[in-house]
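Reviewers of the previous submission asked for a worked example of the structure-prediction workflow described in the proposal, so we include one complete record here. The input consisted solely of the amino acid sequence. No template or homolog information was supplied to the procedure at any stage.
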Amino acid sequence: MAEVMIPIRSVKGYVKEFGIEAIGKKHADPKLVKEQILDAFHKEIFGQFTMKFGDPQILAKDASTIDPEEKAKIDNIISNSVRKWKRLCIEFAKYRETYNLLQPSDLMISLENVTNDIINTVKEDEDVVITEGAQ
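From that input alone, the workflow returned the following structure tokens.
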């Protein structure tokens, strides 16, 4: 099975690709670019979970059942990602074209939605298994 490489960009990489290239040079719609940034950031975060744990569905587990070592890794990925996102918000706020485009809360709201989708998918899969076993 071939591994898929998820690009992990620096803050400067995000600014160059999405701020300078997309909004500055190509005059792309800032709202669309914001969605693209969030999507790229999600892929980066969940790619890290996949590399560390083999599956991002570890986020669907009950926190009390997660090994403390794994929990420390999860906390590290999330805290580093949040810190990087905040730095990205600060960088985008420096420029007139991208001022107020990204907010620190945008990442957590979108991550919560994605995580809830993962949890709901896992629960649906468990329901299917239970239903199949009962027949």
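Residues 128-135 have pLDDT under 50 and may be disordered. We consider this example representative of the routine output the project will generate in years two and three.
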